[in-house]
Amino acid sequence: MDAISKQGVPSSQRANFVKVLERVLSREQDEEQLTPEAAFLQVGVGILGYDVADGYLTDGPKDYGFDYLDISSDSCTIFQSKSVSYANGIDVGLQVGPSYLDDVRRIKEVLSNLDNIPVDCNKQVGRALVALKNEISRQSLKRIAEKDDREAAPFPISVMLLVLAEKFTSQAQTEFAMLRDSSIQYGGVSVQVSVIPVFIDDLLEELWSQRNDDWKDRAGVKKDKITLRVEGDVIKDSKTAIFYAKAYDFVEAFDSLGYQIFEPNVRSEIKASKVNKAIRDTVSTRLGRRDFRHLNNGITVICDGYSPKGPKERPTAFEVRKPGVVNGLQTVKSMHDAFKKLKHEEQLDFQQNCLVLCRLHQPDSVRHIEDLIKATNNQNPMKPRNLRSNDPEQRAFETLFAELGWFYERKEGAWSAFSSDARGWKSLGGKKADYFKTRSNGYKKIDNADIAQNWLAFIGFSTEAINEKRSIFAEDHLYSLIFLRRTAKHGYDYDFKLTRETSVYNEAKEKSPDPSAMILATLVREVADHLAPSRKQNRERAIANLDLARRSRDEQDRELDADPGYQKGKMLRGMLTLFVEFVGFALFRALGDRVHDRSANLRKTPSMLAIFENLEYEPLVKRYSERDFKKDDIILVLFAAFEHCVGALYENNSWLRGYNDAPVKNKYIYSPQTRRQLLDELLELDKRFKRAEWVRDWADGFNERKGVFSQIAAVL
């Protein structure tokens, strides 16, 4: 296998998807406080369908080339990541030489001698290799227990060489060919090791497939129909047809349209699940393909309509208009992935002999399509966010946000589906995409996952917002606190403890938060993102200030490590969600029990008005850079106060020692200790203004009202 098999991202969209990848990498780096190399590894692993939390993240000193391992009972996937600097953008034409294969050689050397795991490897590598040994050994023991004398299938290990480059040089390609496939023996089990390079275009291809939610194919040509060929008889009535379909027709549809054919589904792909692996294994063999129709639950498709082809009583195919797979996402994606890895003659056999049960529904085939979607999604667990998408409060927020001029994305792909065809969105009262357009031709759309995360931070639980964002829609106590209640106090006053036993729930009012306030909480994070210097800006500014332009990179790094300005800039960049919590705390202190009713007034202040109405951040950035502070421009003044408080933390020797000693800086930044100290600094700032005037270019309003919170209350 030379590389991940692909048709390629559409050439007209390649540059756009490069920008998407750059943004994803930048956000991962900032939010998780990762090095560029670590961010690329985690983003790449995620794009390719794996969850870092479910495997062994082994990247680090003494990793012997192993960066991440995903181990199951019958296979193993190993990631080796190679990144280059992308601070100035991804070099899409980069070719990499033979040295990029050195760690692959190290990995294969360790795998060939599993009984002698390197004694100096890091702990995670050691744990992962022991787990791998155990799974391979179980294969042999299982066969003995079952008295199975048939030739065993080899245990497959895939080494994914994740490279931020276009391709190998010719010399590297020649050397790679010699490394690509090999077999080893361990514990009486044959182990097949395959090395698979993953280049930039492979990642872009996956991104395109996941994000294509328009009825256009890879060439950008409008396409909203697919053909499903029939094998055998059809059970049908006026609005439904049930039949065995050629599995390849679904593979081809996914190749052409990507995730658009899954738009109605209440969940997106479940990454690396056991069910998906079983599907791939079954359709990878000739015998499995012939039995697949009997082993799989089938695929349920809703559509705008279908037309039978061939004899009326025995159709040979159906032309399906705007198909939507509501159950069988995992089946289609797994069949697609397996097909792409087959040799040519096996692909021909797949096309001819692999069938899958298809249930095809026209509009109004059932009274409530949501019931059909939920009832048929039972082979793999549903993604909680999408399962909640049809709950009454989510539909209500969709309507309420629209009244404020914002499109509320209550599930993945909602905006693209709406902008393509608004007729199905009855909750929006006939509004079309242009209703949400800004004067700069952008669109005011907001994702409910972002809303949930930032609102949780705003009310004082930023650690949960960062660390438990995957649980927000799954855990009732988190979900209800965000979408169904109004908290009485900020998390600071509950000692940042958020468990079912704490009084935060008992004291909260059973009423959904104000939609304007929820939007503002999300926009506040975007404000921080625009005002905090990027890593590149921070570095360039520090190099200019210290006159280091002519120094080597190593010399620059040594100087920057000792420069307080540069270090504070790095810290600030990693605290974007803390700023949301900081603003929430300031408003809770200023407005008390009126916070939920009056926070929405923040949108009328100078900087936030332009952002809320038209997503215009440039005036805010310009005023901040020119130190042009107006007394009533609360958000701009609060960011200046936030920067001051972060600086005070840095100057606290005890806190700084803890930060420097912390193995994971992000965890230390979002620890209750740091958050309390940061907000205590704001309380001290308020006391300072009450005692006497304190001259700062951003503090006129605070001086005038003799306090931070009194000024906020006066404005809001």
Walk me through this protein's architecture:
The chain has about 725 residues and is an alpha/beta fold. Helices cover about 50% and strands about 15% of the residues. It has 33 helices and 17 strands. The strands form 4 sheets. It has a 7-stranded mixed beta sheet with strand order 12-13-9-10-15-11-14. The chain has a 6-stranded mixed beta sheet with strand order 1-2-3-5-8-7, with helices on both faces. It is globular. The chain starts with 13 loop residues before the first helix and ends with a helix. The N terminus is likely disordered.
Low-pLDDT sequence parts: 1-5, 266-270
- Rg over CA atoms, rounded to whole Å, is 28 Å
Distance between the termini: 62 Å
Biggest sheet: strands, sense, closure? 7 strands, mixed
Share of β-strand residues: 5-15%
- The helical percent reads 40-55%
Number of strands: 17
Shape: globular
Report the structural category: alpha/beta
List the helices and strands and how they pair.
Layout lengths: L13 H19 L3 H12 L8 E2 L10 E4 L4 E7 L12 E2 L5 H10 L11 H23 L9 E9 L3 E2 L1 H10 L1 E6 L2 E10 L1 H12 L13 E12 L3 E7 H11 L16 H10 L2 H10 L3 E4 L2 E5 L7 E5 L2 E4 L1 H13 L2 H10 L1 E7 L7 H8 L7 H4 L4 H12 L3 E3 L4 H7 L24 E3 H11 L3 H6 L8 H8 L19 H5 L7 H17 L3 H11 L7 H9 L2 H10 L2 H16 L3 H4 L7 H9 L3 H8 L8 H17 L2 H9 L3 H5 L2 H20 L8 H6 L2 H8 L1
Parallel strand pairs: 3-5, 4-6, 5-8, 11-15, 16-17
Antiparallel strand pairs: 1-2, 2-3, 7-8, 9-10, 9-13, 10-15, 11-14, 12-13
Helix pairs in contact: 1-2, 1-6, 7-10, 8-10, 16-20, 16-24, 20-24, 21-23, 23-28, 24-31, 24-33, 28-31
